[in-house]
Specification:
49% of the residues lie in helices and 12% in strands. The chain is an alpha+beta fold and 1701 residues long. The protein is elongated, with a radius of gyration of 48 Å. The protein starts with a strand and ends with a strand.
Length: 1701
């Protein structure tokens, strides 16, 4: 199960070090489905260690999540809330128990006392005269407060007279009276949240409460509310600059918030009452619930509308033409986000690669591309990363180093990190060697290769995604809406429109209701019917045309931003972005100006055209209002009315009322103070108007707080004029005196420090400046209260919004709250907006050479800042802007700086330069680095960040820095809201996943319903994101969290095996494979079952898991093969990175079990291999049907087959490998026949080769290579090589660990080259003989011409010399006689080919050795063999080198020949050729005689005689008593006529081996011997173990030197007595699989002995007994003799020799 069961409770992981724990059952209700639901408080635990129980319990009480849960979810997650009978224990009724503890009579007396005390306090309050209340009144209130603390008496205090009493006390000018009222309210509110909310709500909703409350009374009530709600919604907005909201607006927000929360509590209570027993009126309760839902939606809409205005979100954001997000799945990660933070210049890069290598887009599948990269890539080549993988990013380049069979298999030296990192084959693009690389503009190709395929790009990738139809998204697309429903507004749209109808005045409201009745058949509409109306779209459009004329400015702004207006309003119908002309008549240009779209009216334009010459005489105010149309006239009229003597209130008040409805001109006037100091006249004019406005009570209702920033900017301006500054201070003092709320606003803006600096600058000569400063200072606690209250209200609204999202998930009911999308849009706004470089920091300081500090930020990599000081003292200090959270901090360096380049950098953070005590990160800089990332994704604001260069390269002292780049997000609410949204989403879906997993564990058949469940949940989240989350990052965050919390735990649970070792998903896949054949009938139950399984599996693998982002440190801890042992990685179990791993592991187990059953049943059948290939092909098709052509599942399929093969005993595995070798041999030979049959054989061969690829890396590959080597040797020497041999080896080459078949083909190529050299050698010998003959003839001619006058003595000497020369020549002739035996042959010389084969790779037995070719071959062949022997011996001798062991030749009987017999060409073996040639001189010969002449055994000769004496052969075998074995003679044609022409194949049939014979047993003996040696060596080294390379060397040494097996065992092993490192590695893999040998966790290359197993350890002796030294290597020769077609021997039987070996 995902999560952790601690003390029988389920703990949900919400993030790093963050868990949720079920703590308490709060309340109960009946859900929409009629089943009970329970609200559970989940505590948030923050802990770094699970054992640290005490410290976390204190912190976690502050944070909690309220979650409604069903019976099943509680049963699966909250065990302590279940009774002994398994039922949920209801919420505790402590109040009832306490009430029962009091006697009823005592309780009645206390209630009577409370009522009398209330009456007395009211009477005393009326009799109170003066500002000081009498002491008896205070005593009475004190006693009432004591009674209020008793919870059973809470009902008595609900008397309306208590509220009147509290109202009078709160409005009292005496502080002690207000304090006493606060004490009573706190006592009443201390019982529970419902009572507290009810009391605060009842007080806040009193009529004209604000008229009775002064500033202090309102602050007291606000403080009580802040204290009451502080623990409910603990949410921090640190780093976010909240707007300054005056107390009047805060009090209004409090009232609306209390109203909304009260209605929400009533909704929950109504559902609880609906489920109560003996409920006699369910229809009434349903109607009451509908009424409450409408009221709650309207209250939430009002709260959101006012909160948006108070936060100034509507003024800060410009109106966008389209708020819709591109239609795409939120569950598919987009790689576009990975490029955040890159410079603009890198948007369309020019990539370097070689055109010789193919990109990934040219391959049909990722698996094919991976194989291409694996076969092509060579060490030293440059590669580029195509996908993000852990700490390697897409686009990074590096140099390929090596690869092996691990996971990941590829090691690359990356330039971005300066070190090696392991990745997968499919992630790389080959650039080639450095000299082959060229610059290629491949931006489109590169981005196409990186795309995930979700947007319709037709490029197959390793993570395959279907492009269209059912499997394109993880959820099924919704069905088409009903035509009738599509013509009407949804309930959410109608309620949003109804919200504005309820905002209208009574006459306008009645008029709109009349329009609705006329269009809906005149039905009388009350509030209940009004909520349930089905409004046609045409009627809604008419209403949207009529509403703008009847709404005020605030409501009109909300209407223009709401969803229903954007969808059905005039603007949407016209398809334009401008506002409709109807609103222009309502002076809506002011709204456009506030939203950043200033427009000029026609009247203003005409006036400007008529009076161009009088502009020079206009006042500064006229300059300000130019271009604002009618809005400017309001300010001009206001100035005119205020400047007249004795300003008339009747003239000013209408203008103020107009400014209250449309405050943009007023805000423009105040913001003019932020203009440069040169506008002195404008500043004085504006301050004079503002000063006079403060005297009017109506002016205090204007939004002064929204433009206070301009006043503070003018106050802080160093160039401000003294007169302007004096007028500003006088204005602010008068404003703060008129309303202390604005003194609080000034305190929040930091006016105290600004006033102090102004006083210092002007030597204290500013009138009322000190008084204003003191007034602002006294409001410090009120400013803190306002900030806390704003935070609480905003946090409470966010929690209510999250609660509505949770109800939407649980009930699948639409969200009908107006402006819900507006609120979410503003919370998510800015999630994708970045702040770069100088917008993040205010100032950059350096430790030395400050005049060069600007070079750090000039964005020029050729310039640099160079320090000047001692080593380790260099620092760069960044003073950050307020609220900036650094997303990335990068240091630019250059390797060319040599010893000036930094080597170690440490980053510190603090609140000031004196408190830089927190180390944020420490980074080691590689010598080849250019960009060093220091910080990433900080979650806290640091005012000061300091970069310290602690060490330089090569021990340098000073340093050079090329630049500093800072990237940070805007200080928006998105990070806070994202955290809360993801927490709630993760908790909700992980709880639901646990409940679903519990159902599946109880009954596996429930797994069939999982697809529909997941489909509904995912489609609902997609619809919610499309409707309410227009921002791409917000939608992706929701989709990622939902997938991680729901799908990942489910996958882990359904793929975990039970006690029987079978997982639920494994069982389901087994059932799918069993009924696959029956599912071809679309109307069968099997087809429906298979369809459900396919939909489920395709849904689970829809999203390829994304790797978790790296931590804040610059060098994150690597994962997989790239990491060392790290126990912290265990905390990531169950996260989405395990989805594919769990699914592939499950599929592998299913395949392994299926293949194991097949092997157990059919391994002895004759047609085992074809049936196995068919079974493997069905599994491949099933894998594609279930998961698509994803390489991960194809690899799991191969691993499953490999696991089944590993479970076979050795002899069974040897039998299987022999069967595959035999099948391949038969198909290769069968493909030679050509035609349709040959093509069929090739198809069967290809299917078999795909299956055989599984043998790669397994122990069975050794035996498979052994048998394949034998059968391949027979093919090559008996039939001859073909192109198919090389093609087969190219495909299944990894299945041969010793590469013996490849070496055999290489030997043939070498022999062919030797044959060409031998041909040249023969020509040289012939030329030498002819040259010698010419020299002899010349000598003879010279001798005849010589003088005959020689004496007799001289003739005798010459005769002696000639005699000696004749002796030498005779010896030389005898030496060359063997070579020249065929020189004087009169017939056609046969073509002889010799193949030199090595016994190290060719399986040649001793019975095939030919003892003496001279005794068995005719003379015309012996000369060729002798010449070749001399040639080979000379080629092996190298003068000048140390003479050592030379290869010696040994001729064998193996080979083939073409023999002419009449008109027939007989294809025979070498033994058959010798036999037939022997019959040329004899009419008959006995078999016994042939055995004596050849020295062959009957096992070799008899198979050769069989085909010759068959019906197609030329010989007859006759039985004779005196000749054992019979007599052979040439068959007479007259006795049995046969065809006289054509080719006749008489080569003996191939003899296949049997794994059960002695040879297979010898292989098993060798395996057991190696296992014995491995275990013995590892035992000798104890727990420390050995490196695998060292272990192989020691085992080979022990095999060669001893102790070794006895002599009889060595003789039985024969050829198998040789041993290679591959054999040792194969045995090591076998022992690892058996558990005898184990890897070290921290060093997987080190092996050690694990547990004792029974290993056959025979007695040992030397493998080569009696040998005094190494034997010289043997080399076997093969002759290929081909005839030139000249008749030979006789006219009846002409024989031609083809191949002799």
């Amino acid at each position: 199960m995902v999560g952790e069961l601690r003390y029988r409770e389920f703990r949900v992981p919400l993030g790093p070090g963050l868990h949720a724990y079920p703590d308490e059952l709060i309340r109960q209700r009946v859900g929409h489905d009629g089943h009970p639901e329970y609200q559970i408080r989940w505590l948030i635990l923050r802990r770094s260690d699970d054992g640290d129980e005490g410290s976390t319990q204190v912190d976690c009480k502050a944070e909690h999540i309220l979650l409604w849960m069903s019976n099943d979810e509680i049963y699966a997650n909250c065990h302590k809330m279940l009774g002994e009978d398994g039922q949920v224990i209801g919420p505790s009724q402590e109040s009832d128990g306490e009430a029962g503890a009091l006697d009823k009579s005592v309780l009645g007396e206390m209630e009577t006392d409370v009522k009398s005390l209330i009456q007395r306090a009211l009477r005393q309050l009326e009799e109170c005269v003066g500002a000081i209340p009498p002491a008896p009144l205070l005593h009475t209130v004190h006693v009432l407060s004591a009674y209020a603390s008793i919870e059973p008496l809470t009902g008595v205090f609900k008397d309306p007279r208590v509220q009147d009493l509290l109202m009078h006390m709160l409005s009292s000018p005496d502080y002690q009276m207000r304090w006493s009222a606060g004490r009573m309210i706190q006592a009443l509110a201390s019982h529970d949240a419902g009572t507290r909310t009810e009391i605060l709500l009842s007080l806040s909703q009193q009529e004209a409460i604000e008229k009775h409350l002064d500033f202090d009374s309102r602050c007291a009530l606000l403080a009580l509310f802040a204290q009451a709600t502080l623990s409910e919604h603990p949410m921090s907005f640190e780093g976010i600059q909240l707007p300054q909201v005056p107390g009047r607006l805060l009090f209004s927000l409090v009232k609306r918030y209390l109203h909304a929360t009260s209605l929400l509590d009533q909704l929950n209570d109504s559902t609880a009452e609906a489920g109560a027993p003996n409920n006699s009126a369910p229809e009434e309760l349903i109607g009451e619930r509908s009424r409450l839902e409408l009221e709650f939606s309207m209250a939430m809409g009002s709260l959101i509308s006012e909160l948006v205005q108070a936060m100034r979100w509507d003024r800060a954001s410009s109106r966008q033409g389209s708020l819709a997000r591109p239609a795409c799945s939120i569950f598919q990660p987009h790689l576009a986000d990975s490029g955040l933070g890159l410079p603009v210049a890198q948007a369309q890069p020019t990539f370097r690669r070689s055109r010789r290598y193919r990109p990934r887009s040219e391959f049909a599948s990722g698996n094919t591309y991976a194989l291409y990269v694996r076969d092509t890539l060579q060490p030293g080549m440059r590669v580029r990363m195509l996908d993000d993988y852990e700490e390697i990013s897409a686009g990074d380049e590096g140099e390929f180093r090596q690869s092996n069979s691990g996971v990941p298999p590829v090691q690359v030296l990356w330039e971005s990190t300066g070190r090696t990192y392991w990745v997968h084959w499919h992630m790389l693009e080959i650039l080639g060697f450095e000299e082959d690389i060229e610059n290629v503009v491949a931006g489109d190709e590169y981005q196409g290769a990186m795309s995930s395929g979700a947007l319709g790009v037709a490029l197959p990738s390793w993570r395959w995604k279907p492009m269209t139809e059912l499997y394109a998204v993880p959820y099924a697309l919704p069905e088409d809406e009903d035509a009738e429903e599509s013509e009407h507004l949804t309930q959410a749209e109608w309620w949003e429109l109804l919200f504005f109808i309820k905002k209208l005045d009574v006459p306008d409201h009645q008029e709109v209701i009349q329009i609705l009745q006329e269009n809906l058949d005149g039905e009388i509409l009350d509030d209940e019917l009004l909520a349930e109306l089905a409004v046609p779209m045409e009627l809604a459009q008419d209403l949207l045309l009529a509403l703008p004329q009847r709404l005020d400015d605030s409501a009109l702004r909300d209407l223009l931003n709401c969803h229903v207006y954007r969808k059905y309003g005039p603007e949407a119908l016209a398809g334009q972005l401008a506002y409709p002309p109807l609103l222009e008549a309502q002076q809506d240009a002011l709204l456009l100006q506030a939203q950043g779209q200033p427009q000029e009216s026609d009247d203003a334009a005409r006036a400007e055209a008529k009076e161009p010459k009088t502009q020079c005489s206009t006042t500064p105010l006229q300059h300000l209002v130019e271009g604002y149309g009618p809005a400017g006239k309001i300010l001009l009229d206001l100035e005119r009315a205020l400047s007249s003597e004795g300003a008339q209130a009747s003239e000013v008040k209408p203008l103020l009322l107009q400014l209250q409805r449309q405050p943009q001109p007023f805000l423009m006037l105040m913001q003019s103070l932020d203009m440069p100091a040169s506008n002195r006249a404008l500043h004085l004019t504006a301050l004079r108007i503002l000063m006079q406005l403060v005297d009017f009570p109506e002016a205090l209702l204007l939004p002064w707080h929204e433009a206070m920033d301009a006043c503070m900017a003018c106050l802080r301006s160093p160039n401000a004029d003294r007169e302007v500054l004096q007028e500003l201070i006088l204005f602010l003092h008068r404003l703060a005196s008129a309303s202390r709320d604005y003194a609080v606003v000034l305190n929040q803006l930091g006016a105290r420090d600004a006033i102090s600096k102004a006083l210092e600058k002007h030597l204290g000569k500013l009138e009322l400046a000190q008084e204003l400063r003191d007034m602002v200072f006294k409001c410090e606690k009120h400013a803190h209260l306002y900030r806390k209250l704003t935070t609480n209200i905003l946090g409470g609204c966010i929690q209510m919004v999250l609660g509505q999202i949770e109800d939407h998930r649980r009930t699948h009911q639409p969200i009908n709250i107006p402006f819900f999308d507006v609120f979410l849009r503003y919370l998510c706004q800015g999630s994708s907006v970045e702040v770069k470089e100088d917008k993040c920091w205010e100032k950059v300081e350096v430790s030395s050479n400050p005049h060069r500090a600007s070079r750090l930020t000039d964005r020029n990599p050729k310039t640099y800042w160079e320090s000047n000081g001692s080593a380790g003292s260099h620092a760069i200090t960044l003073r950050m802007r307020q609220g900036i959270l650094v997303r990335q901090l990068t240091l630019l360096v250059a390797s060319e700086d040599s010893s000036y380049m930094p080597a170690r950098v440490v980053v510190f953070g603090g609140d000031s330069t004196n408190s830089l005590n927190t180390e944020l990160t420490s980074v080691n800089v590689m010598p080849a680095a250019s960009r060093v990332i220091l910080l990433e994704n900080l979650n806290r604001f640091w005012p000061v960040i300091q970069i310290r260069i602690k060490r330089c390269q090569q021990g340098g002292i000073n340093t050079r820095i090329r630049g500093v780049e800072v990237l940070g997000p805007k200080p928006t609410f998105w990070p806070v809201f994202r955290e809360q949204l993801c927490r709630h989403t993760r908790l909700f879906y992980m709880v639901r996943a646990q409940a679903w997993s519990q159902d599946i564990s109880e009954d596996r058949r429930n797994l069939l319903h999982l697809s529909s469940r997941l489909n509904g949940a995912l489609r609902q989240e997609q619809d919610f994101a499309d409707r309410f989350l227009p921002d791409e990052e917000a939608a992706q965050a929701l989709g990622k969290t939902c997938w991680e919390a729901l799908v990942s735990p489910l996958v882990q649970n359904i793929t975990s095996p039970d006690e029987a070792g079978i997982s639920p998903l494994g069982w389901l896949l087994d059932q799918y494979l069993e009924c696959r054949e029956a599912a071809h009938n679309p109307q069968s139950r099997a087809a429906a079952f298979s369809s459900r399984v396919r939909r489920l599996t395709h849904l689970l693998v829809h999203v390829e898991p994304c790797e978790a982002p790296p931590p804040v440190v610059a060098t994150p801890r690597p994962k997989g093969r790239n990491r060392s042992h790290d126990w912290s990685s265990l905390a990531t179990r169950g996260l989405p990175s395990s989805i594919m791993r769990n699914l592939t592991r499950c599929w592998r187990a299913v395949v392994e079990e299926q293949v194991n059953k097949f092997l157990t049943s059919y391994w002895q059948d004759d047609d085992f291999v074809p049936r196995y290939c068919e079974h493997f092909h069905k599994l491949q098709k099933s894998s594609s049907e279930l998961f698509g052509p994803r390489a991960a599942f194809l690899l799991a399929l191969q691993n499953g087959c490999a696991g089944a093969l590993l479970r076979l005993p050795f002899l069974k595995a040897a039998h299987v490998s022999e069967q595959f070798s035999r099948h391949i041999d038969q198909r290769i030979q069968g493909s030679r026949m050509g035609g349709a049959r040959g093509m069929e054989m090739l198809a069967q061969l290809q299917r078999c080769l795909e299956t055989v690829l599984v043998f790669s890396g397994l122990e069975i590959a050794t035996t498979f290579e052994h048998y394949y080597q034998h059968y391949m040797a027979d093919r090559l020497l008996g039939v001859g090589p073909s192109w198919l041999e090389g093609a087969v080896l190219e495909q299944i080459g990894p299945c041969f660990p010793n590469r013996l078949p490849q070496q055999m083909l290489q030997t043939l190529n070498t022999s062919e080259e030797l044959q060409h050299q031998f041909h040249v050698y023969q020509l040289q010998r012939l030329d030498q003989a002819l040259l010698k003959l010419d020299n002899t003839e010349k000598k003879i001619q010279v001798g005849h011409k010589a003088s005959g006058q020689k004496n007799e003595k001289e003739e005798e000497k010459e005769a002696g010399v000639e005699a000696a020369a004749e002796v030498v020549e005779k010896e030389e002739e005898e030496e060359e006689e063997n070579e020249n035996e065929d020189l004087y042959y009169e017939g056609a010389m046969p073509e002889v080919s010799v193949l030199v084969l090595s016994p190290s790779c060719w399986p040649i037995s001793s019975i095939s050795h030919l003892l003496s070719p001279r005794t068995c071959l005719p003379s015309y062949l012996r000369g060729t063999l002798n010449r070749y022997s001399n040639f080979y011996n000379k080629s092996q001798s190298h003068p000048g080198l140390e003479r050592g062991l030379q290869r010696r030749l040994q001729w064998t009987w193996l080979g083939r020949a073409e023999l002419q017999f009449g008109d027939q060409t007989l294809h025979v073996s070498t033994v058959q050729m010798w036999l037939l040639l022997y019959l040329n001189d004899l009419k008959a010969v006995s078999v016994q005689r042939l055995l004596e002449l050849s020295g062959l055994s009957p096992d070799v000769l008899n198979p050769a005689i069989g085909p010759l004496t068959s019906s197609r052969g030329p010989l007859d075998l006759q039985e004779q008593k005196d000749a054992p074995g019979g007599v052979l003679k040439i068959r007479d044609d007259s006795e049995e006529p046969r065809p006289r022409r054509g080719n006749v194949w008489l080569i003996p049939p191939k003899t296949y081996l049997k794994a059960e014979d002695e040879e297979g047993q010898n292989l098993e003996k060798r395996r057991n011997l190696l296992n014995c040696l491995i275990v013995r060596v590892l035992k000798a080294h104890g727990d420390e173990g050995l490196h695998i390379d060292q272990l192989v060397c020691l085992v080979l040494e022990a095999w060669q030197k001893g102790p070794c097996p006895p002599r009889d065992l060595v003789s039985s092993l024969g050829q198998g007595s040789t041993c290679s490192s591959t054999d040792v590695l194969s045995c090591i893999l076998h022992l690892l699989g058996k558990g005898t040998v184990r890897r070290h966790d921290d060093r997987p290359q080190v092996l050690s002995y694990a547990v004792p197993v029974t290993v056959m350890e025979p007695h040992t002796e030397s493998l080569n007994p009696g040998s005094s030294g190494p034997n010289p290597p043997l080399t076997f020769h093969t002759l290929q003799i081909r005839s030139r077609g000249v008749p030979y021997a006789s006219c009846t039987a002409t024989q031609t020799f083809s191949t002799f070996r």
